[in-house]
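Fold it.
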Amino acid sequence: MQVELRRLQRAVGITFILVTHDQEEALIMSDRIAVMFGGRIAQLASPEELYRRPVNRDVASFIGVMNFFSGRVVSNGGDTYRLDVQALGQVEVPTSQAPEGVKGADVQVGVRPEMLTLLLQEGETAERVTEGEVVEAVYYGDMTYYNVMLPGAGAPVMISMRNTAGRPILTAGDPARVGWGAESVLVLN
């Protein structure tokens, strides 16, 4: 029905205002989304921008799932930030992956579960690799959701992996090589 309503709205060329607490419904049906807390707009953006570039931890938590880490801005090179990120180490990220005017040296860093990958085959590589241990694996058929403890992390990180032909499924206690790249890291106010 959501897809049909979206098609109808476009065909007729009228504006819909949809008020919902269902994040998925908002992402599917909207051209622009206003995320509000306490009667104030925290972020107004397209669904893609809202999901990929939330301006703060509240918005990131509200739309989808996000792993959070403490970070510290080590240096600002004009168009990049060099960060020291809890459990991930030092990483350089473009300023486009941070809200305007990052305030202070201490920041929150977010990484979506699908932006992390488990390197399961010998010789598999990624831009960055962090070693950890599987705490929990939940098999959903098409996906497996892992909780992996990384050294220095205060809590396990969630990693979502599509189950493809021949891909092994890890279980609790298995060592895990976690791959990720600088493009996965978001700096949040």
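The longest helix spans residues 2-12.
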